[in-house]
Amino acid sequence: MNPGPRGLPASEVLNIWTKIVCRVVDYGFGVEYGRLEPPRKGIFDGLKLTIEPSVDLEMQCFLLLHLFGHSVQWVAPSYRPEILGLDLDPLDDFLVALRAYEGNAARFGLQVLHEAGITHLDAWFADFAETDWKYVERYYREGAIPAWEDCIVRNARPIQPLAVPPLEPRLVDKRFAF
């Protein structure tokens, strides 16, 4: 379900998963599996990140990194989420802010990937992040969830890691990835 843009070997995906879970937990977040209402694939609440177990492990790796990035945006006292207080109308203005919000979440995720000692998969992660953006943008523009496979991007522009600011994990409104 929801294959990644590149399809990494299973042994490498397992290695990524093990290392990034450790880093996310080191930052004070819990990581758990839980059945989520479709189409949700992951949720975060400021204290823990929950992933739908039916999602393949490569996608779980991306989701964990991306949900971590979003968690940072909501629990770092020095960070103001780009979408905070914005309305969907006008849509183009909202999408500009959403692009920055999604992009910075990806940058925090890439930072954790690097902190886990994985520095050779930046292109893999950038492809996932750009695929995710295309998916989210299509959802907002079309009003329906597109097929993941129709959004896959390969050879995306590189992204740069963003240092994780001090965090104060705390309960926030649940947010989800789909």
Largest sheet: 4 strands, mixed
* Count, helices: 4
Order of helices and strands: HEEEHHHE
Structural class: alpha+beta
The main sheet orders its strands as: 1-3-2-4
Low-confidence stretches: none
Radius of gyration: 15 Å
What is the domain total for the residues? Answer: 1
Portion in beta strands: 5-15%
Shape from CA axes?
globular
- The N- and C-terminal alpha carbons lie at a distance of 13 Å
Mean pLDDT level: 95
Number of strands: 4
As a percent range, the share of helical residues equals 40-55%
Describe this structure in words.
By secondary structure, the protein is α+β, with helices and mostly antiparallel strands. It has one domain (10-177). Helices cover 46% and strands 8% of the residues. It is built from four helices and four strands. A four-stranded mixed beta sheet has the order 1-3-2-4, covered by helices on one side. β2 (42-44) and β3 form a beta hairpin. α1 (10-26) packs parallel to α2, α2 (57-75) packs across α3 (91-115) and α3 (91-115) packs antiparallel against α4. The two termini are 13 Å apart. The mean pLDDT is 95.
